[in-house]
């Protein structure tokens, strides 16, 4: 069975044909069992984002990952940039620790 | 000789018939006992169960089904439910990962965790897979329930929802959501409140918006499961926090942060 990260990689590669794709498992920053895939950060650079407002880009990524969000993906951080934006800044901001109850 | 043959036939026939019935009865009993264990399948199911079973002891095990330590506790719970001695106790099982809001509400930080409820109050909290500890506590509670007559209610899903109280509740969900996101020029749907954010993402959003010095209103989605689920679909945005400016979704933490860093945030909030 494919891991969550593998499944996400596949769906984003197919749907967004990204020039850069990085999926970072940040679950270890949280109080969840080892090998969890509950907290992920997705960095995706695609020409399909050209001229698309930030909020729509994120909505697109969330829509593609909805099956994962519905089955235990608890926190999803997204960096969605166009190629020129990515060339200008490859800085990926750090995610906060999710301090609430489950996953601390 | 012939006669003896026929007897053999009858004996064999009845022997198998009896075996078959034993098998059937056995299966029936198993199915009946398994029904006594409630697997939570809806976000608000546990709350409803606790409400209707106030006079019973309710034992709720928060688990991750894939975890082997949880498996021990789940097996143990199945033994409890098949024991008539504990028929006045309602046993529930809930996959903590599938219902993060419920886990959060009861402050579950790791699995397995077992909560004992009485009269809607937590009376006992066991953390970890200590089989002996759980057995002791269940035995202890088995003999001191306020209601040893009657049996707990196990199904609440099909029951009609509680009567709507405020006139707002009578509006269709989408209308209510629309008026909610328009309640203030800056509306933040978050986990917890500005004084006590229940999630690091929500906390950072509050910090960023606080820094603008602009007034805003927050809504704690952990307090309202209907809004929590409804707003996800309404805005096609699957996570919280969500920030709305003049009724329009601006995004979550990632976007607010990015906008702050590029200076676009001040621009977007100008005149709000």
TrEMBL record, chain A:
Region of interest: Disordered: 84-104
Matching entries from InterPro entries are given as: BolA, BolA-like_sf, BolA/IbaG_stress_morph_reg
Q: What top-level branch of life does the organism fall under?
A: Eukaryota
Which Pfam families does UniProt cross-reference here?
BolA
Q: State the family named in the UniProt similarity comment for this chain.
A: Belongs to the BolA/IbaG family.
Name the PANTHER family on file.
BOLA TRANSCRIPTION REGULATOR, BOLA-LIKE PROTEIN 1
Q: What is this protein called?
A: BolA-like protein
Source organism: Orchesella dallaii
From TrEMBL, chain B:
Q: Give TM segment ranges.
A: 6-23
UniProt organism field:
Orchesella dallaii
Task: Indicate yes or no for the key word Kinase.
Answer: no
CDD domains xref list? GRX_PICOT_like
Q: Does the keyword Transmembrane apply?
A: yes
* Listed PROSITE patterns: GLUTAREDOXIN_2
**Which residue spans adopt a coiled-coil conformation according to this UniProt entry?**
none
Name of protein: Glutaredoxin-3
Domain Thioredoxin, chain residue ranges per copy: 52-137
Keywords for this protein: Iron, Iron-sulfur, Membrane, Metal-binding, Transmembrane, Transmembrane helix
Q: Where is the Glutaredoxin domain?
A: 186-249
């Amino acid at each position: 069975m494919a891991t969550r990260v593998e499944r996400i990689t596949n769906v984003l590669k197919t749907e967004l044909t990204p020039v850069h794709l990085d999926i970072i498992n940040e679950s270890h920053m949280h109080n969840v069992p080892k090998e969890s895939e509950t907290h992920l950060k997705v960095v995706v650079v695609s020409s399909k984002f050209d001229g698309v407002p930030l909020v729509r880009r994120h909505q697109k990524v969330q829509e593609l990952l909805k099956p994962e969000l519905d089955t235990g993906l608890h926190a999803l951080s997204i960096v969605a940039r166009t190629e020129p934006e990515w060339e200008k800044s490859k800085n990926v901001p750090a995610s906060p620790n999710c301090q609430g109850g489950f996953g601390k | 000789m012939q006669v003896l043959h026929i007897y053999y036939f009858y004996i064999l026939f009845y022997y198998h018939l009896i075996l078959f019935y034993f098998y059937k009865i056995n299966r029936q009993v198993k199915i009946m006992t398994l029904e006594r264990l409630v697997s939570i399948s809806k976000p608000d199911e546990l709350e409803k169960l606790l409400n209707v079973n106030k006079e019973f002891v309710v034992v709720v095990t928060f688990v991750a089904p894939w975890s082997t330590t949880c498996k021990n506790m789940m097996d143990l719970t199945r033994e409890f439910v098949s024991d008539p001695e504990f028929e006045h106790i309602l046993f529930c099982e809930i996959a903590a990962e599938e219902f993060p809001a419920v886990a959060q509400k009861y402050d579950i930080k790791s699995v397995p965790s077992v909560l004992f409820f009485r009269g809607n109050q937590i009376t006992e909290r066991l953390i970890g897979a200590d089989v002996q500890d759980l057995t002791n506590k269940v035995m202890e509670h088995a003999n001191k329930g306020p209601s040893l007559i009657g049996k707990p209610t196990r199904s609440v899903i099909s029951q009609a929802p509680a009567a709507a109280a405020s006139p707002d509740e009578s509006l269709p969900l989408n209308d209510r959501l629309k008026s909610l996101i328009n309640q203030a020029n800056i509306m933040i749907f978050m986990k917890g409140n500005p004084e006590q954010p229940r999630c690091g993402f929500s906390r950072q959003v509050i910090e960023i918006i606080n820094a603008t010095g602009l007034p805003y209103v927050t809504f704690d989605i952990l307090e309202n499961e209907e809004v929590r689920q409804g707003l996800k679909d309404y805005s096609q945005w699957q996570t919280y926090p969500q920030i709305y400016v003049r009724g329009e979704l601006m995004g979550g933490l990632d976007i607010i942060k990015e906008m702050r860093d590029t200076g676009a945030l001040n621009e977007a909030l100008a005149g709000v």
